[in-house]
Input
Amino acid sequence: MPVSGRPAGEVTGLCRYLPGVTRGLAENGLLEVIPDRAPRWLGRPTDKPRLRQVGERLNAEHDARLRLTGDDFCRLGDIAYERDGRDEPELVRLRDLAAEMGVHLVWSNVHVHLAESVPDKGAAVLQMAAELGLDPRAIVTIGDAPNDAGLFVGGRFGATVGTADIAGQCSTCPRPCIHHPGPRGRRLRRDGRGRPRGRGRRGVRAPTREKSPVRETRRWLRRSQAFAARSTERGSAATIRGDLAAFVLCRGA
Ligand SMILES: [Mg+2]
Output
């Protein structure tokens, strides 16, 4: 399921055309979209003109040079600007200035967003899971930027994957997130398959354990990692590129 910073209109297109995808969360978790239904607000509806005013003030008073995204016309609640290659110190400067004006600024690898409350994609996923009767421990989340921080919060989901893009950005995430470089001693072989599990030194199978959502999720994740490893040159979870990780997620959904 896509959980995106992209506009509701764009995510609706993903849901309609990606195989196996029937719903999505758009605009950093503000809206749920399902094709042929009106988008549903999960967060409080925003005041776009007010947010845009803050962007204009940042430009006029602080030389922010923010450019509205071309997809602004189909954003229902979010205001987004092109990131235009801004580095983190500049983004942190803009974030602090926006905070003084009572607005939250967060960024992805392509856009800079203004929001009335801290965007939380994870809270939106938890709400959806509760409504659909899904166990959050059976959910794997994948993200690549600080606007995905709500997906990285420890204890929310069965497993979380951050792509290589996020490794150096954890300190600027709006929420504390857990960062683990990956399992030690279980490097994938060249063919992408993990070391056999559940066997002792002499090939004796370990006693079968009872199934649990957490173990099932981890098993699924290992299979996804192996799939990704076969599809990339580098081949470990920490170096999956964002688009490929999203593809793996869709395959498993
Ligand atoms: Mg992203």
